[in-house]
Design a protein that fits this description.
It contains 33 helices and 23 strands. With 756 residues, the chain is α/β, with parallel strands linked by helices. The chain starts with a helix and ends with a strand.
Length: 756
């Protein structure tokens, strides 16, 4: 192999450095997989290292399979004698041979999520834990996070003895682990944790694998948690021939346990580390790379590196300001059709990237209307999500009580002590009486096989449904949905949950209300039946082959590792991307900026970044300022475009980047004077989210105080938000989105607006 011809200078150095600790900082699109496969081939083919002495760790089975295929292409069947696998696969392989040394048998079972939930339900029942106070999702999440950090049940208990809630979870953790052991079972987190326990309790086993694996490689090292870090540290302790590959700028999984310090502190862990930076990008045009560099350089917790390319500058970053989220989706659809026609591209060349799954709904509906095929990656279709299906089932029963499928879905959602056995008795009685399920439930006292408690629970449910049916004629669909969410306490339960996934479910339900508001605005027939018909058509029309030519919709998290010729990053507003949690946590903001960097570097040829002046959240119009990340991109790298995709002058004054912040109450940079870099990562932000969003003190608004996103009050129209403004001589023309009276154009001198 002539590696000097096949690889660039830095890649060649990385592939041929095999002794001692090696840190390869591989920027986006820099060919890291190519380097790893040639490094393995070089070690086996040139250095004559036995394949069985090499361990290569990846994060997904797909990545492991692809790497093995590439190595096999280079060196043949010898590749079969080395371990190229995920952390979990490697650990299972070790445990199948050695787990009896820590009290399990080698025929242990691995529990999936469903098994875990079943087990934790037993634990909750035995410990008499009130699930209204601490639910199974929160307990499992806390246990998983503890295992990620190698905190044992006993240690978790010791740390939380004085915290009533955490102490209860500690008891659940202890019993859960005992039951796993009694069942000779491991959960997913245990696979790594128990391997570390094996290494510590049986040093002869560790010594065997240390001798076996003289050369260790780990991909995506920035995504490792403490348990994965410790597993690798123990294995590499003997020979220290450890090569880790990663990019601290793409560390975006802190919320699930990944620790960026693992890669940032690698040189402290291994003092003689050789550091090689792969900064040559082979994916994106120069303008896209420069934009990514401009954004990420604002982070303080990072290794210094700058992506470069020999490619042409390419298109500038196209920034589009929509009036609202509907206009945003319409613009994206229009641009896809235009580029598709002009450049002879395929639908699969386009990706729509957003921060949260809830944002997909409006794009799905727009694409269906415009006959643009699409597929969702890393998430269910909007109307297929559990929480949406639950509330839609309520609406269907309200509209048609004979719908037993929908009735069966919601009869015990949220939980109301109507179990499967009770439903079976009701169903049996309905069959005997040749009546439908709902009718016999209304007259539940006639069912003699039910206990008084069962009857009471069912009566409460039917009373609730009768109330909903009465309100159907009095409320709009959007208001009816909100009424259901309130009366069933469905939304309250999600908001009180400690399960991180439930935060996303709340956002999805808010989006459902917004969908209903949009329906009411755009349809003459505003009835519940018409809404259900519309939604049914939207959700049923998507029956094409997932592998067919289609636009991809996904979160930026799901897009990591992928690339597309044309990328749309949508919802680029403070409060969405970055999210509101970033207002009070500098580390959260840095991770959001890394996420933005990942999104930008998915684009190969063209990148669009869009934001809206106003959008609907929970059925109400809100105004967020353009994302500060847009302002971090130099103005010579961007091009503002209008709804037709043609160059347009920005409607706001620009400073160094896309937008000038002036007195923008939604600007993160305004919140933290001088930004995080000057204030220091350790200092606490002085302003809360409420103060950032609050605006100036009350009084009549004057021209110097006018700013995008400012909350104001009008004597006639009520409370609203300034969504745009322009100077007209001695006066200021304002566009204000009022909460209850829509969007109005006003002259400041006449309107006498009060600041809020």
């Amino acid at each position: 192999m002539d590696l000097k011809r096949l690889l660039n200078k830095e890649q060649y150095q990385a592939a041929t450095t095999t002794k001692g600790p090696l840190l390869i900082l591989a920027g986006a699109g820099s060919g890291k997989t190519r380097v790893l496969t040639y490094r393995i081939a070089y070690m086996i083919d040139v250095l004559k290292i036995y394949p069985s002495q090499i361990l290569a760790i990846t994060f997904t089975n797909k990545a492991a399979g692809e790497m093995k295929d590439r190595v096999r292409t280079l060196i043949g069947e010898e590749a079969e004698n080395m371990w190229i696998s995920t952390f979990h696969s490697s650990c299972v392989r070790i445990l199948r041979r050695e787990i009896d040394k820590i009290g399990y048998t080698k025929s242990f079972t691995i529990y999936d999520t469903y098994d875990q939930k079943s087990l934790i339900k037993q634990v909750i029942e035995e410990l008499s834990i009130n699930t209204k106070e601490i639910n199974e999702g929160e307990i499992l999440n806390k246990i998983s996070r503890a295992k990620d950090k190698l905190i044992s049940p006993q240690e978790f208990k010791k740390r939380n003895e004085r915290n009533f809630r955490e102490n209860k979870i500690a008891d659940a953790y202890i019993l859960y682990q005992r039951k796993l052991k009694n069942n000779n079972a491991l959960d997913f987190d245990d696979i790594i944790v128990k391997t570390i326990e094996l290494f510590r309790k049986a040093p002869e086993v560790l010594e065997f694998y240390q001798r076996k694996f003289k050369y260790i490689m780990v991909d995506e090292y920035q995504d490792t948690n403490k348990a994965q870090y410790e597993f690798i540290r123990l294995l590499a302790a003997e020979h220290k021939n450890i090569c880790v590959v990663g990019d601290d700028d793409q560390s975006i999984y802190g919320w699930r346990g990944a620790d960026i310090r693992n890669i940032l502190d690698f040189e402290k862990d291994y003092p003689n580390t050789v550091v090689i930076k792969l900064e040559q990008n082979y994916r994106s045009k120069a303008n896209i790379l420069n934009a990514a560099n401009e954004v990420i350089k604002n982070n303080t917790e990072r290794k210094d590196k700058v992506l470069r390319t020999e490619d042409v500058p390419g298109d500038k970053i196209k920034i589009f300001k929509a009036f609202n989220d509907n206009n945003e989706a319409e613009f994206v659809a229009s641009e896809i059709n235009k580029v598709l026609y002009k450049e002879e591209k395929s639908y699969k060349d386009f990706a729509i990237l957003y921060r949260t799954n809830a944002q997909s709904r409006i794009f799905e509906e727009t694409f269906i209307r415009k006959d643009i095929p699409y597929r969702l990656i890393g998430g269910l279709k909007f109307y297929d999500r559990k929480e949406i299906k639950d509330i839609m089932a309520y609406l269907k029963v309200i509209n048609n009580p004979l719908d037993e499928v929908s009735l069966s879905r919601i009869i015990n959602v949220p939980k109301r002590n109507i179990g499967d056995a009770t439903v079976a008795k009701v169903r049996e009685f309905a069959l005997e009486q040749e009546d439908n399920l709902y009718n016999v439930m209304v007259d539940v006292e006639d069912i003699t096989t039910l206990s008084s408690r069962n009857i009471s629970s069912i009566k409460k449910f039917t009373d609730l449904m009768e109330d909903f049916m009465d309100m159907k004629g009095q409320l709009s669909v959007s208001m009816l949905i909100e009424y259901i969410l309130e009366k069933t306490k469905y939304l309250e339960e999600l908001k009180n949950s400690k399960n991180p996934e439930d935060e996303s479910r709340v956002e999805n339900l808010k989006e459902l209300v917004s969908a209903a508001v949009d329906f009411e605005r755009n349809n003459e027939d505003k009835s519940l039946g018409a809404f259900l018909e519309k939604v049914t058509l939207v959700s049923d029309v998507d029956n094409y082959d997932q592998e067919s030519d289609s636009v991809v919709l996904m979160t930026v998290h799901s897009a990591k590792g992928l690339e597309f010729p044309v990328v749309f990053m949508v919802g680029m507003e403070n409060g969405i991307f970055p999210g509101t949690q970033c207002f009070n946590d500098p580390k959260e903001l840095e991770e959001a900026r890394r996420l933005c960097y990942v999104g930008i570097t998915r684009a190969k040829e063209t990148l669009y970044m869009t934001h809206a002046e106003v959008r609907r959240v929970f059925g109400r119009t809100v105004a967020y300022a353009p994302s500060d990340f847009l302002n971090e991109i130099k103005k010579d790298l961007i091009e503002h475009v209008n709804a037709d995709g043609k160059k347009a002058a920005p409607s706001e004054r620009r400073s160094g980047g896309a937008y000038m912040e002036y007195n923008n109450p939604h600007s993160l940079r305004n919140s933290y004077k001088g930004g995080f870099a000057s204030s220091g990562m350790s200092s606490s932000p002085k302003k809360t989210l409420e103060s950032v969003l609050g605006g100036a003190s009350s009084g009549i608004l004057t021209p110097p105080e006018v700013s995008m996103g400012l909350k104001v009050k009008h004597k006639k129209f009520g409370v609203g938000t300034i969504v745009s403004f322009s100077n007209t001589g001695d006066d200021v023309k304002l566009t204000v989105a009022f909460d209850k009276n829509g969007v109005k154009s006003l002259m400041l001198s006449i309107a006498a607006l009060e600041k809020l």
